[in-house]
Specification:
Blueprint: H1 3-7, E1 11-13, E2 19-23, H2 37-40, E3 45-48, H3 70-83, E4 89-94, H4 96-107, E5 112-118, H5 136-148, H6 150-162, H7 169-180, H8 183-195, E6 209-216, H9 222-231, E7 236-244, H10 248-251, H11 253-265
Parallel strand pairs: 2-3, 2-4, 4-5, 5-6, 6-7
Antiparallel strand pairs: 1-3
InterPro entries: AB_hydrolase_1, AB_hydrolase_fold
Domain AB hydrolase-1: 19-252
Organism: Rehmannia glutinosa (Chinese foxglove)
Length: 271
């Protein structure tokens, strides 16, 4: 097993001619795709991996400087694709990884056939002319809460983000993967995500982008999906799904997975 494969817990399933790569968001790991994989494995070659810093990775490998920007994650993704001789993959990225895929596609557009972006945001903080969904003070308060009592923070954060109470299976699952992260790493990744501004990158993304968005997502307003659509450099399409929460592939798979499969199977048709 190669160093990249081992570090990111890379798994390759299925054996189709087309490769689908699944990238997870903050606070989760590749297990977030458990409802989706069975629908893909008979038709596609699937590559699953864990972002550095996920609770399933070795915390000693987490470089706080490298992962202070999304470029660090993008270079990791490119290294994985090169290691497994991937060409023109369909990349399905959730949240953090949707933007990681976008940046990687700027560096190496040849590696991507299209991007499917779930709950994607180029910036979470509001500005005078942009609505990202959060005020800076709210982000600061969340970071303070994480630092003071990480376990307590999870019990409040997970239900809000997933959309449900602590008894729901999806909230429990997200809480589990959040709890598996080392608190200082979780705080660092959280800060990176909630302070980045990737709007200036969007015009350079020329790979087709399929933007899939929950109709009610605490972290990403629907307006952000439309902003992406208007500002990406290549073809794009938006589909708003009648789901609640930031992790619809986990909390509402019966609604979300058919939509994702449709976007995997069909390219954007010129109107």
């Amino acid at each position: 097993m190669g160093a990249i494969e081992a570090a990111h817990n890379v798994r390759v399933l299925g054996s189709g001619d087309t490769t689908v790569v699944l990238g997870h968001g903050f606070g989760t790991d590749q297990s977030v795709w458990k409802h989706m994989v069975p629908h893909l494995v008979d038709q596609y070659r699937i590559i699953l991996y864990d972002n550095m810093g996920a609770g399933t990775t070795n915390p000693d490998y987490f470089d706080f400087d490298r992962y202070a920007t999304l470029e660090g994650y993008a270079y990791d993704l490119i290294a994985i694709l090169e290691e497994f001789n991937v060409d023109k993959c369909i990349y399905v990225g959730h949240s953090l990884s949707s933007m990681t895929g976008a940046i990687a596609s700027i560096f190496r557009p040849d590696l991507f056939h299209k991007l499917i972006m779930i709950a994607a945001s180029p910036r979470f903080v509001n500005t005078v002319d942009y609505y990202g969904g959060f005020e800076q003070e709210e982000i600061d308060q969340l970071c303070d809460a994480m630092e003071s009592n990480y376990k307590s923070w999870i019990s409040g954060f997970a239900p809000l983000v997933v959309g449900g109470d602590m008894d729901s299976v999806a909230v429990q699952e997200f809480s589990r993967t959040l709890f598996n992260m080392r608190p200082d790493i979780a705080l660092s990744v959280f800060r990176t995500i909630f302070t980045f501004d990737l709007r200036h990158f969007l015009a350079r993304v020329t790979v087709p982008c399929h933007i899939v968005q929950s109709s009610k997502d605490l972290a990403v307003p629907v307006a952000v999906a439309e902003y992406l659509h208007q500002n990406l450099g290549g073809k794009s399409i938006v589909e708003v799904v009648a789901t609640e929460g930031h992790l619809p592939q986990l909390s509402a798979p019966e609604l979300t997975i058919p939509v994702l499969l449709r976007h995997i199977q069909h390219d954007i048709v010129d109107a």
